[in-house]
Amino acid sequence: MRIVKVSLGNRSYDIKIGTGLLARVGRECARLALSRRCAIISDRNVAPRYAKAVQDALAEAGFAATLVTIPAGETAKSLRTLESCYDQLAAQRLERKSFIVALGGGVVGDLAGFVAATYLRGLPFVQVPTTLLAQVDSSVGGKVGLNLKAGKNLVGAFHQPRLVLCDLDTLASLPMREYRAGLAEVIKYGIIYDARLFEHLERDLPKLLRRDPRALAAVIARCCEIKADVVRQDETESGLRAILNFGHTIGHALETTSHYGKYLHGEAIAIGQVATAKLSAQLLGLPQNDVQRIERLFQDAGLPTHVKLSAPQRQKILTAMSLDKKVSDGVIKFVLARRIGAVEFGQLVPTDLLAGAINHQPSTIQ
Length: 366
Ligand SMILES: NC(=O)c1ccc[n+]([C@@H]2O[C@H](COP(=O)([O-])OP(=O)(O)OC[C@H]3O[C@@H](n4cnc5c(N)ncnc54)[C@H](O)[C@@H]3O)[C@@H](O)[C@H]2O)c1
Ligand SMILES: [Zn+2]
Known about the structure:
This protein is an alpha/beta fold. The protein has 13 helices and 12 strands. It has a 7-stranded mixed sheet with strand order 1-2-9-6-5-3-4, sandwiched between helices. Strands 10-11-12 form a 3-stranded antiparallel sheet. The longest helix is centred in the middle third of the chain and has 21 residues, at 213-233. The chain is globular.
């Protein structure tokens, strides 16, 4: 088992990565001195597969766990689901000292985390992420929240988990499309922080696509280390943490304008990252060779890298971007890459360049 520490003073916690971890959830929670009662929040795809194992493991360690199941998919990150979770916790009489276990992908983690941040003015929670995206990204760092009709993640809080348990075994049942979407965040860490990780991914991609557990454990641990390092330096996103949003301004706008239906989050940010790499070449001198390597790695991972848009669709995306949380005083700030492994945040991008970037054509890669 690999352990990555997230150092945030008295809110520090461990991320544990390995196989067979679901069976250890109880023992791990027992070490945190939590109270006896808890609720597992999971979704309709994950609960039938894994909730019993988690519930049994908790029971063995003396915890009484009730299960709250929410619908699967991005539309479940809604006020409606939130209310239904509150109602069920109230019906189960969860108390101020009870805790929440988020068992699922990023949707469950974000929603259950927000429930934990707000119910009875805040309960402790444990993340048990079951998608690749959630294991390398959404379960770490304490951002929790939900979507409004006006846009993604417009309601939220910072609420750090007490522990993150990444069980690699759970990835076996993840549909290939979801798995590839997780690779989009993995590749992002290489671009924003670690040229060696990027090279490693170029070399080891076939092993990762086969979900080789050794290759996966090393890569997931490295991604968590990078995220932990960034979050430690800037927990509440007043600066550096923005680099984690590389490709996300465009990606979020694509998700919003397609009403969360057409693209998975990872697919939308794959397109967003390639578009942002091209903007970076124009504005920060990212070498063309790096742009091509970035585009090729996403393609080899089986992810979309461009989108064809009509003029009205393009306009809708530009409008959506102006509603993004990263907009301040009407100016859109971007994270741009200077080279693979080094990015700069707070870069102002003129809207005419932006219009071109979101309608780009795929490069011809030799
Ligand atoms: N909080 C953050 O810092 C942060 C960071 C990145 C992304 N996010 C959020 O994460 C969400 C996306 O997360 P996601 O990609 O994990 O999506 P998801 O939670 O919707 O999971 C994807 C699909 O896979 C299913 N699934 C999950 N685990 C499975 C398993 N082991 N086997 C079979 N099926 C499984 C789910 O039911 C769902 O249908 C978005 O809402 C995004 O905004 C948050
Ligand atoms: Zn993301």
